[in-house]
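Researcher: Before we compare anything, I want clean individual predictions. No alignment, no superposition, just each chain on its own. First chain goes here; please echo the sequence and then give the structure tokens.
Model: Echoing the first chain and its structure:
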Amino acid sequence: MTAYWVKTPKWFKRLYPRIVTWEMPADEDRSVYLTFDDGPHPDITAYVLDKLKEYNAYGTFFCVGNNVRKFPDMYQRILAEGHSVGNHTYDHLNGWHTDCRAYTGNIMKAAELIKSKLFRPPYGRIRYSQLRRMHKAWPDWKFIMWSVLSADFDPEITPSQCLENVLQNIEPGSIVVFHDSQKARERMEYALPRVLAYCQSQNLVPRPISML
């Protein structure tokens, strides 16, 4: 039995304040939003970027500050190719296990390298006290969660199940989570090109999340 939802339930979203975004509006362009957590990684992020370019698709990369420090050229490639970036803390901290001051300090450290007002908490785990503190300090930031989880991080599922997690749930406005990380590599590299091909066949348009 998994400890996560592939499709985030509506009732669960209502537990969070309105400042948290779980999906985007379903527009006439049939936009969807593919997101990639935990990079950049010199090889895996390059694979993602190559596949996105192949399908003329754009995504949003929630970057770990320490990885940006280690792989600045890959981070710059993400930006140069027209994708969005977001802050994912400096050390991939679990908000449930970190006090507010340390948590926001870690985000500020990442913000020195990641010039973005988009933020996603690692593991999706953040306390209300942390959200309130962050919203007070940075009222123009956007807190991005997701509506569809590929579960590419889960070694207990097959690459084909990872793919089905997305194909069975993606729809206009969906925010989908993948990971450009070693742990997720096998499942993500199988699923991503097939998801992109599906989007193309269904006239779904992968776009980056922006502040607009």
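Researcher: Okay. Second chain, same rules.
Model: Second chain and its structure:
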Amino acid sequence: MGGVAQPFSAEAALKRAIRSHLRNLGFTKDEAGDLVLPGVGKDTIRKMHRGQRRERLTASQNFLARALPKAMPFFADGDEIDPQRVALRLRVVRSDTLESDLFRVAALTWSVPVSAGFGRRMRYLVWDEGHDRLAGIIALGDPVYNLAVRDKLIDWTVHDRAQRLVGILDAYVLGAVPPYNLLLGGKAVACLIRSRDVYDDFRKAYGETVGVISGQAKSAHLVAVTTTSSMGRSAIYNRLRLDGTDYFERIGYTEGWGHFHITDALFERMRTFLRDRNHGYADKHKFGEGPNWRLRTIRAALAALKFNENIMRHGIRREVFIATLATNAFEVLRTGAVAPDISGLLTVAQISDLARDRWIVPRAGRGEIDFRGWRRDMIPKLIKGRVDMPQASLRRSG
């Protein structure tokens, strides 16, 4: 006698969902059970981010209906930009303001979903005061606790890192919006991080603080900022020099481990699975309770499901860069025994002038790309993924 088909248990359903998600991304397995990417390139990386980007866009529909019409006039048409008049400045973004809405709208144009950051945060609009238009966005937040290439470069012990990681932030959002990106504005925006303005803003916001992990009072100075390319190797940050000064240094690659290919919806199902088993990681996500709560939570769920942790080896090695705001940054971070030497830091205004003359004006004069053909009314299509972010060739940009 035939029986009624029984529904899958929550555990079995979650396993099926994970396997289905990885197959849809194009992963296969080798003989050792490790995941294998279907070729590593920008198209593959975008595909792996597509699920998260779609989730973010769906969740942002009410926000966009409210904020996009107000934001649109602040984006530039290409034909209104006179490269000689570009004057970049930083505007601090505070929560629940027009600036925060504009930052969020701009971030939604990225093909790779933008993180919300965690811990300490400093967010900026990069404003072109010469035209009163938005040129780019910057967000700095607490760095990854374990980053092998960074820690090796500084020559940190585990104790040293715990004591002095407070002197580093990570640029988790960094870039120019159209049409400024077509004029190599991404390079100019990146250089603004290594400015006296950013150093002073950090000192004002976080100079006298108590370490959440250590519980100790710290007199913090921002002496270095890391960033990681979103598309494997980066043409933006390589050879980033102004007036004989290196603004970013390439220090290596990540190891190809992480969780960006796990969508928010799948992550929430993992949390529910752990919560039903009274696992502490399900809701343990205050800063200071671990270097990467999301990663540890996913690992805990995979272990409970008896999945191979190699699911987290996505294989995409991202290029890592560091900008030093103090000439003796590595000594400060390694020993904590010396004061930062920031005598060489320029202001944002000074860096903007150098970057305009170094990249923006020459790029416009070459006529290699039609930046004047960009129209702000393409922004909604860019957000919806109906057009790709316009790109300028960087082959001849030192």
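Researcher: What stands out in the second chain?
Model: Residues 1-6, 287-291, 393-398 have pLDDT under 50 and may be disordered. Additionally, Residues 29 and 35 are 5 Å apart (CA to CA).
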